[in-house]
Amino acid sequence: MTVPTPAPGHPQQPDGVSAPEAPQAGYPLPPLPEGALDKSASQFNPKQKTVLGCSGMVAAFLIVLVIAAAVSPSEAKPAKAAEAKPAPTVTVTVTATVMVTAPPPVAAKAPEPTQEAAPQTAQVPDMTGKSGDLLVEALKTAGFADGYKATSFHDVSGQGRTVLLLTNWKICDQDPKSKAIPITDKISVGVVKFGESCP
User: Fold this and answer.
1) Which of 9, 20, 51, 173 has the lowest tally of Cβ within 10 angstroms?
2) What is the pLDDT of residues 58-70, one digit of tens each?
């Protein structure tokens, strides 16, 4: 007699024990007889028990791997966070030095020599024997700006007197006379008082 292979998840029934009837829809499952669970558990042979034991160990190993995988990302997060930190900012300051070369100084042009205007001249009249005041007036008429400043009167009598009132003094000698000179030059005039003889 051929024993049919039980469907997965249904243990094989021993001889003489009838399989429980499938429950009808809408009715609760009938209770299993006592000792049925112990009896079905003892039905595994040693080879099946070994396979089940190995399967349990593989399942336990897989559970440990899943737990380790679940724990390891959280431990790796700080490392990733540390890697994700931005690098410190480095500021580089570049200083440029600009050298400006000034053009060489241009030598100032020397002013072209201009012809100086010839000094203005005036003719000195010969006033010998006349009073000093007449010489001053004649010099002013000849072109001297100030006839008095253009003359230098001095006493030739040997007494060393100061010449003050020109109308009282007679011209004995003058240098220059009857000659054109620059109006900035001075005329030296030697005098004595009227009534005195020229040396």
Assistant:
1) 9
2) 777 788 777 877 7
> Rounded to the nearest 5°, which phi and psi values hold at 38?
-65, -35
The CA-atom distances, in angstroms, between 158 and each of 119, 161, 170, 194, 195 are: 36, 8, 15, 15, 15
Tokens coding 115? 């012809």
- In degrees, rounded to 5, the angle at the alpha carbon of residue 116 between the alpha carbons of residues 113 and 117 is 150
Contacts of 40 (CB under 8 A, 6+ apart): 11
Total residues found in the chain within this entry: 199
Burial class (CB in 10 A: 0-12, 13-18, 19+), 70: exposed
| DSSP label at residue 152 | E
Q: How is residue 45 written in tokens?
A: 């042979």
Stated as kind and residue range, the H or E segment containing 160 is none
Kind plus residue range of the DSSP H or E element containing 43: none
Query: In 3-state terms, what secondary structure has residue 51?
Result: helix
Q: For 11-69, what is each residue's pLDDT tens digit?
A: 555 555 555 555 555 555 556 555 555 545 456 666 666 666 667 777 777 887 778 77
